[in-house]
Design a protein that fits this description.
178 residues; alpha+beta; five-stranded mixed sheet; two-stranded antiparallel sheet; 2 helices; 7 strands; rod-shaped; membrane; transmembrane helix; transmembrane; Type II secretion system protein
């Protein structure tokens, strides 16, 4: 006699098992994509900070050149220079110099120099974890600033303003990213 139908094993997966497998796979793909976008944004932030650190090193080299060549009086003029000119090779995402913001036809992520404000700007592309600045911009803005050591006694003794004691590339407004 044959086996009863209830005792037979099925050869394949049931529709319920298949639907469960697809659901689990969908959740795993969602988690993977979420992590990928997180790490892509993290890499964007790291690249921006690396470029800023490279620009700070280039500024130090420019300052050292001025010191060695005895041209320290030229230091204040550096405040109006595009920091990207100090680099031997500009970053691939450097968009160029503009009077104001670049046109919307330019890529969203990248650096540009605003000649009208003497500001170097990084426009954030993936800003899921980026907090916009006080004006609602998804940008990180830098300027070259002369450092003056002004003591009241020194200022009284001098008829002309003191020359700067240094120069730095600094954030215009602190940013929060992650």
């Amino acid at each position: 006699m044959g086996e009863p139908a209830v005792w037979r094993k099925s050869a394949g997966a049931t529709l319920l098992e298949f639907a469960l497998m697809i659901s689990v796979l969908g959740v795993l793909v969602f988690i993977l994509l979420d992590r990928m976008t997180y790490y892509q944004e993290w890499v964007e932030k790291a690249n921006m900070e690396y470029t800023a650190a490279t620009l700070k090193s280039a500024l130090r080299m420019e300052l050292a050149t001025l010191m060695v060549e005895g041209r320290m009086r030229e230091m204040p003029a550096m405040e109006k220079q595009n920091p990207m000119t100090w680099l031997e090779q500009k970053p691939a995402n450097y968009l160029g110099e503009f009077d104001g913001a670049p046109p919307d036809t330019q890529p969203r992520d990248g650096w540009y120099y605003d000649r009208s404000a003497w500001v170097l700007v990084y426009r954030v592309n993936r800003g899921r974890y980026f907090v916009p600045d006080s004006r609602g911009r998804r940008e990180v803005r830098f300027s070259v600033m002369a450092i003056y050591d002004k003591s009241p006694d020194d200022m009284k003794l001098r008829a002309s303003p003191m020359p700067p004691s240094g120069i730095k590339l600094s954030l215009i407004e602190a940013y929060k990213w992650f």
